[in-house]
Write a structure and sequence with these properties.
heterodimer, A: 297 residues, mainly alpha, MetI-like fold, two-stranded antiparallel ribbon, 74% helix, B: 356 residues, alpha+beta, Rossmann fold, OB fold (Dihydrolipoamide Acetyltransferase, E2P), six-stranded mixed beta sheet, five-stranded antiparallel beta sheet, 8 helices, 35% strand, binds adenosine-5'-triphosphate, binds magnesium ion
Chain lengths: 297, 356
């Protein structure tokens, strides 16, 4: 016993991880396993209590054969990959600006990036309704007043609204890991690069970008995971027309009370999400290795 | 001027260079002329502006006034990436994501040199710094000395007209440092390269350079060859910064200054003067010896290789730093021993006007 306490205290091996593991087991793993088990069984619920649960693969096979699910998951993946790409396209320049800025501007950028995180995602999503919404939305009013369009554009309650809203809501999660990389970036490397004849653009391309790959990997993983699993933004900005996998699982669980179907959808969501996280990690490592081997940088 | 650059138009001409950071003047009207193929060291205490001067030459900092010309070309007009200047950074600044070969080839690649040509020139320069076997390593897997050689190779391969090295030996241990200094000097001389080294280590400055520029608070105090800097410092500041020195007070009149013990020195000025006497220019005598100009007591003794360094306090409170050969009669004085001191050679003393 003393031995265990001693090992615990000196922080070696897996002992220090025990509290976290115990916590997660009780509060996450067990409920998750229970939930997922619904997908592999017929359950009978009476007054909110499960009265019988019999093993079956029916739900799984039915869903795997259903084209609706295939389309929904495809839509989810497309959307999340697009959001990830947009976040990278908008986020990297901000991080680069951060790198090139002085102390004061850096602080301003950091505040601008973090401030939205202090507001709930739901509130930020509602803001997009005001901006994009029908005839009275800011965008449409401006375009109409400028005479650029004749009739209001239909953006809200479409795929585009979801894409725009989700990109804005998740952008900080791409920028923050990139800023973390930039903070650690050694300015002497840029000076060395310039001294060796590189223009600013060449330095960006050959020094800063390759060294940001780990940050891009982290940011992409965060943005993808959140975009893939959120049902708030699609529900609010998609106006109920827009069905992605997460929304589907939510509706099956909460509205139609098809717990077994919902559990299968959740399982698929979890498995595919883990697959993509693995893919991003692999891509980030491979890119790093490739840059090194080929000297492409 | 003694030890100044003599010759045709200097290869590197720095004139009136001034750089301010807010109220702080980091460089005040610096002038320096360097001949082709010369190695000059900027020597000075921490914060005197050595790095700032290099950064102005390389283009990382913009001077407020002044002129820099390299090979008759106005360098300040050129952007950083067009200046004919190679820099070896203090911590080498090697690209961590690139191999040794890619680090060295970086400059050629940025200039659009063909791949085969890059490979050839990189192989050539790596052979020159004996790093050929390590070309596929990453910087993190190199020792300090190897990293330094990569940094030097990377700067040299693009054939700059001027090589700048900022405290290039700081990260190396003393023994390796001496070896690398000699090696680098040979390499630079063989390539006929012109170079400016920055250091605050006077041994390094004396070992590596043709001429030394001693800096103090943003100014260049003296430029001369290492021997003249030591033997004929232009000011008490230089005298005290380079080597160990004893500054003695004396009075001069009629072109002659007289030190205790009857030593007479030629003095170009009259009134109160300061006289520089180096530690090895004292003779340690018996306390009763008539030739002694001072009587004192040994307060400290420290063997340093072939010599012993003593601190000897005279009766009037003056403290002397004295060096004696260890195998001479004065080589084993105990602390507290009473001795007499005399100046050996008036010719190597230097007389300065006393600072008021
Ligand atoms: N970017 C800067 N902003 C403000 N002051 C600076 C800046 N860079 C240098 N200084 C100041 O200018 C002076 C000269 O600095 P510099 O780095 O040239 O010294 P140095 O001679 O290289 O010293 P060291 O031997 O310690 O490297 C110092 O007092 C320093 O504080
Ligand atoms: Mg410095």
């Amino acid at each position: 016993m003393l031995d265990i306490i001693a090992r615990f205290a000196n922080g070696r091996g897996f002992w220090p991880a025990i509290p976290a593991v115990a916590f997660l087991t009780v509060l996450m793993v067990i409920p998750l396993v229970l939930l997922l088990s619904f997908g592999f069984s017929d359950i009978v619920v009476s007054r909110g209590v499960i009265v019988s649960q019999d093993f079956t693969l029916d739900h799984l096979t039915k869903i795997l054969g259903d084209r609706l699910y295939l389309l929904t998951f495809q839509r989810s993946i497309n959307l999340s990959l697009s959001v990830t790409a947009l976040c990278l396209i908008f986020g990297f320049p901000v991080a680069y600006l951060y790198l090139r800025s002085g102390t004061f501007a850096r602080r301003a950028i950091l505040i601008a990036v973090i401030a939205p995180l202090l507001t709930s995602g739901i509130v930020r999503t509602y803001a997009w309704i005001v901006i994009l919404g029908g005839q009275r939305g800011i965008v449409n009013r401006a375009l109409l007043d400028l005479g650029l369009i004749e009739a209001p554009l239909r953006i809200l309650n479409t795929h585009w609204a979801v894409l725009i809203g989700m990109t804005q809501v998740h952008l900080p999660l791409m920028i923050l890991p990139l800023i973390a990389v930039m903070t650690r970036h050694d300015k002497a490397l840029d000076e060395a690069s310039a001294n060796l004849g590189a223009s600013r653009l060449q330095t960006l391309r050959h020094v800063i970008l390759p060294m940001s790959v780990p940050g891009i990997g982290t940011g992409a993983t965060l943005v993808f995971t959140l975009s893939y699993t959120t049902f708030v933004v699609p529900q609010l900005l998609g106006g109920g027309n827009y069905l992605n996998a997460a929304t589907m699982a939510f509706e099956q669980m909460v509205y139609s009370l098809e717990w077994s179907k919902g559990a299968v959808t959740s399982t698929l969501l979890l498995v595919t999400c883990i697959f993509f996280i693995g893919l991003f990690t692999w891509a980030s490592q491979t890119t790093t290795r490739w840059i090194r081997q080929e000297g492409v940088a | 001027m003694d030890g100044a650059y003599v010759g045709l138009a200097p290869f590197v001409a720095i004139d009136g260079l001034t750089k301010r950071f807010g109220d702080h003047v980091a460089l005040a009207d610096c002038a320096l002329a360097i001949g082709r193929g010369e190695i000059v060291t900027l020597l000075g205490p921490s914060g005197c502006g050595k790095t700032t001067l290099l950064r102005c030459i390389a283009g990382f900092a913009e001077p407020d006034a002044g002129r820099i010309a390299i090979d008759d070309t106005d360098t300040l007009a050129l952007p950083v990436n067009r200046r004919p200047v190679g820099v070896v950074f203090q911590n080498y600044a090697l690209f961590p994501h690139l191999t040794v070969a890619a680090n060295v080839g970086y400059g050629l690649k940025m200039r659009g040199v063909a791949k085969a040509e890059i490979d050839r020139r990189v192989a050539e320069i790596l052979a020159l710094v004996s790093l050929s076997e390590l070309k596929d390593r990453y910087p993190i897997a190199l020792s300090g000395g190897q990293q330094q050689r990569v940094a030097v190779a990377r700067a040299l391969v693009v054939e700059p007209k001027l090589l700048l090295l900022d405290e290039a030996f700081n990260a190396l241990d003393a023994k390796l440092r001496a070896g690398m200094q000699a090696e680098l000097r040979k390499l630079i001389k063989r390539l006929g390269m012109t170079a400016i080294f920055v250091t605050h280590d006077q041994d390094e400055a004396l070992a590596i350079s043709d001429r030394v520029a001693v800096m103090g608070s943003g100014r260049i105090a003296q430029v001369a060859n290492p021997i003249d800097i030591y033997d004929r410092p232009a000011s008490p500041y230089v005298a005290q910064f380079v080597g160990t020195s004893n500054m003695l007070e004396a009075r001069a009149s009629g072109g002659v200054a007289t030190l205790p013990g009857g030593i007479k020195l030629a003095a170009p000025i009259s009134g109160n003067v300061q006289v520089l006497v180096r530690p090895q220019n004292f003779e340690i005598l018996d306390a009763s010896d008539a030739r002694a100009g001072w009587q004192g007591r040994v307060t400290f003794g420290r063997p340093a290789g072939a010599i012993v360094e003593y601190e000897i306090d005279a009766a009037d409170g003056t403290s002397f730093k004295i060096a004696a050969l260890r195998d001479s009669p004065a080589g084993h004085l105990p602390v507290g021993a009473k001795v007499g001191l005399a100046v050996r050679d008036a010719g190597t003393c230097v007389v300065f006007e006393a600072s008021s």
